UniProtKB/TrEMBL annotation:
Disordered: annotated segments: 93-112
Doubled CXXCH motif domain: residues covered: 261-303, 310-348
UniProt KW Membrane keyword: yes
Chain ranges passing through the membrane: 20-41
Protein name: DmsE family decaheme c-type cytochrome
Domain of life (superkingdom): Bacteria
Keywords: Membrane, Signal, Transmembrane, Transmembrane helix
Cytochrome c-type protein NrfB-like domain mapped to chain residues: 158-225
Length: 394
């Protein structure tokens, strides 16, 4: 039987078809095996983690999932809200370098006048205090307390500041069973401030303990009102910081009405530009360590260093100036040359003491008191860098 050319071609095509089928089957088996490994990997990894073997390798290949709460807290910037734990541990002061803490993590404070009270939730409070609930519903504190439920829960918005309310709910007329924030309340002022500092400790308030305001029995609510919105910022008890300070410091407020004054009435600065009402290491609650550092924050040209320094200037700016307001030019404590003669008397010139009677409208007018007086010649009175400036002429 003879084989034709066509038969040979048909046989070759059949062989190629068989080879292609074999290759396709091998490829399919390889793909199935790979998918099997992928599908079976998570369960195998979990089994390794349960058995305590291969944990490092499984963690290296485990795909990333959703961010956890600890991840979010680690990414948040530092804030004063993270320092409250130190206060509860008995620390007198706390720093503000801790991680950010959610508002709803604020602890429910203990009321020493109702030690056995339990938390009952904001819904029970609003059942009686409907008006207060409406006023505080838009406030930052209540909105923040209701934002989550990590520790105190969204229903602890009232009790996070006022303490547990079960005893107060049983006997609403009895004073002291709830933490109240007024001076005529039975709640001691130190309990009121300690409750606020449980969250707001540290930062600008790290020197509150021992400050003049704390020593005189001031409460946080003397300056702040977190229950309503009276100010644009700072939950103040009045429209502005200056008005809050002027509530007590009326004598200082009157000094700003003098003809030469700091630009506070014009709204170009406020009391807290120089002072820290929450406490500082200085007696007048300055934001810096010294008076000169505070003044030189704005008056940098008076800072120096100078080749020839004027001793009273380098010592304290208040030797010559009254910081809040004066009826003399440039906030001077006295008119020139009377101010200069507080130190320079019977030396050099003039050797006679000039008084107010030597002014233009006095009984004995003297030409040396007219106009700028000593400053006509000694113009660089704050200090001089000129080689010929020993007398502050230039």
């Amino acid at each position: 039987m003879t084989t034709t050319r066509r038969d040979v071609q048909d046989l070759q095509r059949e062989r190629r078809a068989v080879c292609l089928k074999a290759l396709s089957l091998a490829a399919l088996l390889a793909v199935i095996a790979g998918l099997g490994n992928v599908l079976l990997w998570p369960s195998a990894a979990r089994a390794q983690q349960r058995d305590g073997t291969g944990a490092g390798q499984a963690a290296a290949h485990q795909p990333s999932g959703r961010l956890t709460e600890s991840d979010i807290m680690r990414m948040l910037p530092a804030t004063d809200m993270g320092a409250g734990a130190a206060l509860h541990r008995g620390a007198a002061l706390a720093s503000d370098d801790g991680p950010a803490t959610p508002f709803d993590a604020a602890p429910i404070p203990e009321n020493p006048l109702a030690p056995d009270a339990d938390a009952i939730g904001a819904k029970s409070c609003v059942a009686c205090h409907a008006l207060e609930g409406m006023q505080a519903a838009h406030s930052l504190h209540v909105a923040s307390f209701r934002a989550g439920s990590v520790r105190s829960g969204p229903q602890a918005a009232c009790e996070a500041c006022h303490g547990p309310g079960s005893e107060h709910a049983k006997n609403p007329a009895a004073p002291g069973l709830i933490i109240a924030y007024t001076h005529d309340a039975k709640t001691p002022v130190d309990v009121q401030t300690r409750t606020c500092l449980s969250c707001h400790v540290g930062g600008a308030r790290q020197h509150w303990i021992g400050s003049v305001h704390q020593a005189r029995g001031l409460s946080c609510t003397d300056c702040h009102n977190p229950m309503t919105r009276l100010s644009a910022e700072g939950v103040l008890a009045n429209e502005s910081i200056n008005q809050v300070c002027a509530t007590c410091h009326q004598d200082i407020r009157a000094q700003f009405n003098r003809r030469s004054h700091m630009p506070l009435p014009e709204g170009q600065m406020s009391c807290v530009d120089c002072h820290n009402p929450h406490g500082s290491i200085t007696q007048p609650l300055l934001k810096t360590d010294t008076v000169n550092e505070t003044c030189e924050t704005c008056h940098a040209e008076k800072r120096g260093p100078f080749l020839f320094e004027h001793a009273p200037v380098a010592e304290n700016c208040l030797n010559c100036h009254t910081p809040h307001g004066s009826n003399q030019e440039n906030l001077l404590a006295l008119p020139v040359p009377m101010l200069c003669q507080q130190c320079h008397t019977n030396t050099d010139h003039p050797n006679d003491l000039l008084t107010r009677q030597n002014l233009r409208g006095g009984l004995v007018p003297d030409e040396r008191v007219m106009e700028r007086g000593c400053l006509d010649c000694h113009s660089n009175i704050h200090g001089s860098n000129n080689p010929n400036g020993a007398k502050f002429h230039q």
